[in-house]
């Protein structure tokens, strides 16, 4: 079995978090969890999308300054569009966000199985917390959207066992060529079962999704890419700040940063997905 840096990294981070949470009993309050998610996602999650500009350049999407400008205008216009729609219909936007995210997250296993199989894995990633921690999910969704979304959590809770069975089938089929898929699935299941939903999401998003994206798109940490990633991440953080300030409410001092973080992720996801799932197809994950 050939393990890549991203396989090893996720298993290592997952084990450390599981040990910290169970053996050392590092129980974090809800507010500390929110603070942790906001910081870790900003530092380790955002940069994977901040490289979209480098990827587009590599794909030859903009060969002239005019095209480069067009790329930025298009990207920012899509972000603004999603944020406006979100302000009118947050619950529908969250549901749509979950749907497109499951497709995007399924891409983490592109090359291991076909597109339908990938989507099943993506659905499993997002629906497991609803099966294990339904009450917390209702609280989180209401913090993010301001609405009580019991029915959305119930639908996800029903999808979880179906997606889990699908994941077992997909993993068994891939067992010969990609045994590490099974290890990752077991890790994801254990994390979802053990950790609160926000921490589970943070470990998966930063420990697997972001890292795999960096490795599979051939990110080399030279000074140019590090500079670009940092600059675009800072702009994205500034947009997040603006979102939080524009909705500020002293009674919800920590709910607002969480809400702004997920609004920002949802808005960035649309142009990020168009680029990654539309142009960078078949990011090689499977060991040859
Ligand atoms: C290039 C560019 C830029 C930048 C960008 C960036 C930085 C990006 C990023 C991107 C990204 C960074 C993306 C992301 C994505 C994400 C996602 C896709 C997520 C999802 C999630 C979810 C869906 C979740 C869910 C949940 C909740 C909410 C709670 C708990 C539980 C669970 C987990 C279920 C700017 C704008 C500056 C400018 C223009 C150009
Ligand atoms: Fe991504």
From TrEMBL:
The subcellular location is: Cell membrane
A Gene Ontology term for the protein's cellular component: plasma membrane
Q: Name one Pfam family in it.
A: BCD
What reaction is this protein's catalytic activity?
A: all-trans-beta-carotene + O2 = 2 all-trans-retinal
Print the keywords alphabetically: Cell membrane, Dioxygenase, Iron, Membrane, Metal-binding, Oxidoreductase, Transmembrane, Transmembrane helix
Q: How does it sit in the membrane?
A: Multi-pass membrane protein
User: What GO biological process terms does the UniProt entry carry, in alphabetical order?
Assistant: carotene catabolic process
Q: Which cofactors, by name?
A: Fe(2+)
Q: Record-annotated residues binding Fe cation?
A: 48, 104, 209, 213
Single GO MF annotation: beta-carotene 15,15'-dioxygenase activity
E.C. code: 1.13.11.63
Q: Mostly located where?
A: membrane
Membrane spanning stretches = 7-24, 30-51, 72-99, 119-141, 153-175, 181-205, 226-248
Q: Which family does it belong to?
A: Belongs to the Brp/Blh beta-carotene diooxygenase family.
- Please name the HAMAP family in this protein's record: Beta_carotene_diox (MF_02093)
Entry-linked NCBIfam families: blh_monoox (TIGR03753)
Function statement? Catalyzes the cleavage of beta-carotene at its central double bond (15,15') to yield two molecules of all-trans-retinal.
What is the protein name given in its UniProt record? Probable beta-carotene 15,15'-dioxygenase
- Natural source organism: Halioglobus japonicus
Its taxonomic placement starts with: Bacteria, Pseudomonadati, Pseudomonadota, Gammaproteobacteria, Cellvibrionales
């Amino acid at each position: 079995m050939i393990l890549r840096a991203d396989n090893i990294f996720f298993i290592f981070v997952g084990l450390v978090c599981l040990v910290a949470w169970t053996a050392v009993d590092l129980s974090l309050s809800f507010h500390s969890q929110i603070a942790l998610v906001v910081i870790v996602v900003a530092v380790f999650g955002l940069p994977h999308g901040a490289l979209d500009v480098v990827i587009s350049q590599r794909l030859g999407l903009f060969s002239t300054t005019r095209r480069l400008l067009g790329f930025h205008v298009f990207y920012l216009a899509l972000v603004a569009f999603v944020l406006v729609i979100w302000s009118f219909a947050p619950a529908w936007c969250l549901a749509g966000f979950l749907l497109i995210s499951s497709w995007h997250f399924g891409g983490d296993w592109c090359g291991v199985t076909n597109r339908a199989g990938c989507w099943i894995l993506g659905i499993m990633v997002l629906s497991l917390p609803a099966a294990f921690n339904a009450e917390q999910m209702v609280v989180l969704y209401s913090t993010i959207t301001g609405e009580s979304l019991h029915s959305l959590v119930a639908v996800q809770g029903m999808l979880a066992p179906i997606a889990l069975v699908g994941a077992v089938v997909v993993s068994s089929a891939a067992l010969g060529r990609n045994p590490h898929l099974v290890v990752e699935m077991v890790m994801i299941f254990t994390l979802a079962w053990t950790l609160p939903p926000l921490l589970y999401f943070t470990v998966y998003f930063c420990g697997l999704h972001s890292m795999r994206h960096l490795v599979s798109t051939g990110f080399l940490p030279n000074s140019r890419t590090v500079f670009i990633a940092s600059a675009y991440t800072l702009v994205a953080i500034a947009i997040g700040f603006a979102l939080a300030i524009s909705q500020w409410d002293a009674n919800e001092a920590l709910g607002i940063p969480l809400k702004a973080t997920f609004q920002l992720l949802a808005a960035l996801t649309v142009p990020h997905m168009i680029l990654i799932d539309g142009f960078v197809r078949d990011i090689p994950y499977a060991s040859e």
